[in-house]
From TrEMBL:
It comes from the Bacteria. PROSITE patterns: HTH_GNTR. Keywords: DNA-binding, Transcription, Transcription regulation. One of its GO terms (molecular function) is DNA-binding transcription factor activity. Residues 5-72 form the HTH gntR-type domain. This is GntR family transcriptional regulator. Signal peptide: none annotated. Pfam families: FCD, GntR.
Length: 215
């Protein structure tokens, strides 16, 4: 039997798929009646899922107007990525040097990122790599914040990578991080990890400005 919390998670996942696949555009109103019909659910759990996404700054709401998908903005990028860099670096410090088994998995995932053929696959593998790297962190609140920031940043990454599959620089940095960890040089690995989270910021901002000029 599906409990209320898992139902909300499933609805959030379904909404997220609609967002990243471009079926819902930035600033587009989210018609609860239409979405409830599309997902074959009642409006009450749908509203709970939308409220969760609002808390994560994925959607916004206005009195008497309902929910809409939050716009993409330079301000958002400059808030999300530096914060993500700080929190993930701290999580790596708390995690310590990974086991050999995890390091081998990190190498394998990194190799798969280069071979990935879609932006969706690239973003999902990159998130998998990042979360595996800090998986030994025991601070659950910190990990929850990191995962929320991942979802916020992924809106930009899915859209950007759909047109610009430039992942080589990030993959090279991943390799450097792993090699420093193999040498037990956690501080060096942490420094590069912070830079890795910021590697695409300028490109994202330039891409966003280009999109705004075209519209």
């Amino acid at each position: 039997m599906i409990n209320q919390e898992s139902l909300k998670s499933q609805i959030i996942k379904a909404l997220w798929e609609l967002i990243i696949e471009g079926h819902i555009k930035p600033n587009e109103p989210l018609r609860e009646t239409n979405l409830a019909s599309l997902l074959n659910i009642s409006r009450t759990p749908l509203r709970e899922a939308l409220q969760q996404l609002e808390w994560e700054n994925i959607v916004v709401s206005e009195p008497r107007k309902g929910f809409r998908l939050a716009p993409l903005s330079e301000e958002d990028i400059l808030e999300i990525y530096p914060l993500r860099a700080k929190l993930e670096s701290f999580a790596l410090e708390l995690s310590g040097v990974p086991t050999k088994h995890i390091i081998n998995e990190l190498f394998q995932i990194n190799s798969r990122i280069l071979k990935a053929k879609s932006s969706k696959e690239i973003v999902e593998l990159d998130e998998q790599w990042h979360l595996l790297l800090i998986s030994n962190c025991q601070n659950k609140r910190l990990l929850k914040m990191v995962k929320t920031l991942h979802r916020q940043s992924q809106r930009y990454e899915y859209a950007y990578l759909a047109m610009n599959k430039t992942v080589e620089k990030s993959v090279i940095q991943h390799e450097k991080i792993i090699k420093y960890l193999q040498k037990n040089q956690l501080q060096k690995a942490t420094e590069i990890f912070a830079k890795n989270n910021l590697v695409g910021v300028d490109s994202l901002i330039n891409w966003l400005k280009q999109q705004e000029n075209e519209h």
